Amino acid sequence: MELNNIKRVYLIGIGGIGMSGLARYFHHLGCVVCGYDKTHTPLTDDLHNEGICVVFEDRADWIPMSFQELDGDTLIIYTPAIPKDSGILNFFRRRGFQLYKRSQVLGIISKSMYTIAVAGTHGKTTTSCMIAHILKDSGKDCSAFLGGISSNYQTNVLYGDNNIVVVEADEYDRSFLTLHPDIAIITSMDADHLDIYGDHAHLEESFKLFASQLKQGGTLIYHKGLPLGSGLTYAMNDEAQAMATNVRIEEGNFYFDFNDGSTSIPNIKMGIAGLHNIENAVAAIEAALHVEVSAEAIHEALGSFKGVKRRFEYIVKNEGHIYIDDYAHHPEELRAAITSVKRLYPDKKLTVIFQPHLFTRTRDFADGFAEVLDMADELLMLDIYPARELPIDGVDSDMILNRMKMLNKRKCGKQESIEIVQFEKPELLLTVGAGDIDQLVQPLKHALQNV
Predict the structure, then answer these.
(1) Rounded CA gap, 145 and 115, in Å?
(2) Domain ranges for the chain
(3) Does 313-449 carry CATH code 3.40.190.170?
(4) How far apart are alpha carbons 429 and 215 in whole angstroms?
(5) What are 379's strand-pairing partners?
(6) Which residues are annotated as a binding site?
(7) Would 7-97 and 106-304 be classified into the same CATH topology?
(8) What is the pLDDT of residues 398-439, one digit of tens each?
(9) Closest Cα partner for 418 from 372, 351, 370, 358?
(10) Which of 140, 187, 240, 448 pairs as cysteine with 123 (C-beta 3.0–4.6 A)?
(11) In what order do the strands lie in the sheet with 155-158?
(12) Binding residues for ATP
């Protein structure tokens, strides 16, 4: 496929964070861009307002006529999350179009560019956004395809005037194996997506394959302790090659010193909170140093980094109430978020609202979720968000609740959770989950602030 010849792009599942980034990219190039998604979201509204046509009915007769004739000027992209019986998907198949996964298109776009790819079962979105911000803020510049909305740029895709591209490399459906990076970062390899991989060993095998796809002379940067071969290791307060030391909190801000044996950057002030984000920053610093960004520019950029929407994002922060929203949907992500909140606010009672994501993930990690959620002082548990999955007998959010030791826990609906927050006015509130819990953020903010 020659991207230079593409004039029309149709995306099936356009509302996904990765798919919407491609939609914006091709729209920026001047292509006519249309797409389908099953639900209205603020992101699909943004696409519409940017001049991209989005429909919400999975019907072939809603496909514009200009997309219905088979030719080399039209590109069809789909997400693996789309059901196999999708009317629009099967229309294009019947017409003989070659359909490309998002990951395949990213692979083609990045093939001729200097690619920094960030992979990991968690940490990849924030780390890739950090790298992109360092390169932009320093004047080095880059393009970027991000797995979240950057708070600095209010978008998930950035356009640069050079040959560097930062890509979030997704392990779901082995998507990242379409990439051949110059710098590969692996933040974590915890068991996840076992509906795809079957077991942890096959997941690890995929990450090792990704690491082996470095271009000749490329650099692998990975968290110390991961079962990977040669490369540069990083960690916090550990004997890795790149380290964060002297980690501290001063007036609610995180600070640390960086050292990798050849470059030292003291007294770095983080623009965002979270112990896990200091580790992400060490990986981002190392990537930036490899493309010759100065230590001074890195120091300044990390201080102005505002993070990613729904990644340890402050919604309310005043003397009376703290409300943080996070995308965490795996036990280790929850552990990182809850640990950081408790470290920042050790004297406040922590109320957590959690929405489990996927029946398979709940089934596979019920014990882990229960253990981590017991770290909170109070828990409001929502129903499982099914996403692409059908229900599994015996699997629901009670599966987690029943394993917990905490007494101050209850299951509730979304509206009920808003009413509880409005009545109880918790001093420290954390919402976590990857489903549609984000729709509660503004109502909860209003409930907390409505005296």
Answers:
(1) 11
(2) 7-97, 106-304, 313-449
(3) no
(4) 45
(5) 352, 409
(6) 120-126
(7) no
(8) 999 999 999 999 999 999 999 999 999 999 999 999 889 999
(9) 351
(10) 187
(11) 155-158, 143-150, 164-168, 114-119, 183-186, 219-223, 232-236, 242-250, 253-259, 264-269
(12) 120-126
Which DSSP category does 308 fall into?
A: B
Quick one: how far is CA 322 from the chain centroid? 23
Give CA–CA dist 226/208, Å, rounded: 10
- Closest to 371 in 3D by CA, of 401, 344, 407: 401
- The CATH classification number of 106-304 equals 3.40.1190.10
pLDDT digits (tens, 9 = 90+) for 27-71: 999 999 999 998 888 899 999 999 999 999 999 999 999 898 888
| CATH 3.40.50.720 fits domain 7-97 | yes
Q: Is 123 helix (H, G, I), strand (E, B) or coil?
A: coil
Give residue-wise pLDDT tens across range 122-173: 899 999 999 999 999 999 999 999 999 999 999 999 999 999 999 998 876 6
Q: Using alpha carbons, select from 151, 121, 135, 136 the residue that is nearest to residue 183.
A: 135
Side chain identity at residue 275, one-letter code: L
Helices (H), 305-413: 331-344, 359-373, 398-401
Q: What is the mean pLDDT of the chain?
A: 93
139 phi/psi in degrees, rounded to 5: 90, -5
Query: From CA 153, how far away is CA 306, in angstroms rounded?
Result: 9
pTM for the full predicted model? 0.86
Residue pair 120/189 in contact by the 8 Å Cβ criterion? yes
- pLDDT at site 306: 95
